[in-house]
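User: I'm preparing a small set of examples for a lab meeting where we compare how different chains pack in three dimensions. I only have the primary sequence for this one, and I'd like the structure in token form so I can line it up with the others. Please keep the answer compact; I'll paste it straight into my notes.
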Amino acid sequence: MLRSRWRVTLCVALIGILTGLLTYLLTPSSYTAVATLYVNATVTNSPNNAYQGAQLSAQRVASYTELATSTRVSRQVVQDLGLPQTPEALSRQLSASSPSGSVVITLSARDALPDAAVAIVNDTANVFTNLVNELERPDSSLAVQAVDVRVVEPAITASVTSLGLRSALLYGAISGIALGVGAAFLYSSLDNRIRSAGALSDATELPILGSIPKSNQPPSSDLLMSSAGSGLLESYRALRTNLQYIEIDRPPRVLVVTSPGEGEGKSTTAINTAIALGLAGSRVLLVDCDLRRPQVADRLGINNDVGLTSVLSGKTRADDATQSWNRSLIHVLPSGPLPPNPSELLGSQHMHRTIAHLRSTYDYVVLDTPPVIPVTDAAALAPASDGVLLVVASGRTRVPQVDASKKTLTAVGSHILGCVLNLAPQQSGEGSYYGPLAGAVSKETSISPQDLVSDESTLTMKRHGATGESSRPQPGPRQR
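Assistant: Understood. Below is the structure token output for the 480-residue chain.
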């Protein structure tokens, strides 16, 4: 936790150091002078009386420490020295203390000037001793002749008691670090963003089917996976394997890919999942069902004049609107022209019949749908699929958003297969355990790993080989 919040801790620690420096610069210097007084009860020459006198002296000390800093004493000191402050203010500059059972009183005075501190404490001691001698009377019942207070060590010099520069910076740094650690813990407790697969699993109680690492490529890259050894391809291969075995008796073939909100990578996940399935030799169709902000055609560099909306409006057949991509690695049905009523189209019986037809033609049909929370499109389409993949962006998606998405999809009878954690922080050494991944891909197919799309890539992608072929061949029977 502290490692992930080190910036917060460092910033607060620096603030503490600056606060210590400002305290040193703005706080006036302070000096303290100390005088020592002795309380004595004079008794008759008797062992019992001597003990009683010692007891009386110790008892008097507790009262004398309060009397020494009283306004009655301070008032006289102000008059003697002609001080500008009030007796009450002077009393706050004075302090008196004595260890338990002791007859010695330590009297101290603080002031911005050392000579003034010495004068104040010495005059206070004299006024105090005179007051005590005036108040105390001999006690015949205890054979006490007198109780007096004597100054045994007057103040001569005053010592600096304000913080030095080094001490101010040290105390500021210690306080800042302590506050920084506390702030980091508080920030973590209040931050409900999902940052790990474990946190996602705890929040949803759903299986985590994939964890897609955040790309290290620059945002200007048109294609990811230009170098062998990246963990992205391996992550999608793991997702593909989990999809194939999550329900072994009836593996899902029509997949809805969605996310709680915008910008969480659901379109990228849908595209790369389709490609990963195609790399394994399956016949795959990717359908852009985001009829509000479609991205598939732009990402794959294909024509979007005819697409899903053309099929649902009866202008063409699904087989005719489908385009092959990258030497028929996958087939794509783009969104087509944007309609005024996307939710109604996606929830229509025509859409359900289209999905049923596509299911009989392809091994897998991947449906890229809009986010769950902003619109109802995904919820309208999900019941017609075999299951939903919920894409969650690490460090962006919050737990309440995931909860709301899960409730919405469950309410319409959708089957949520599991979650995909996108933009997951890549651990040290991740992607190198299996060695170069390009060689592993070549065993499956001749297609190179450059075909995987990155979240960091621009919307317009470079075509690789026959990418973006505009021909629409009649799909053959599903390959087993």
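A couple of notes for your slides: The two ends are 48 Å apart (CA to CA). The first helix runs from residue 6 to 26.

User: Perfect, thanks.
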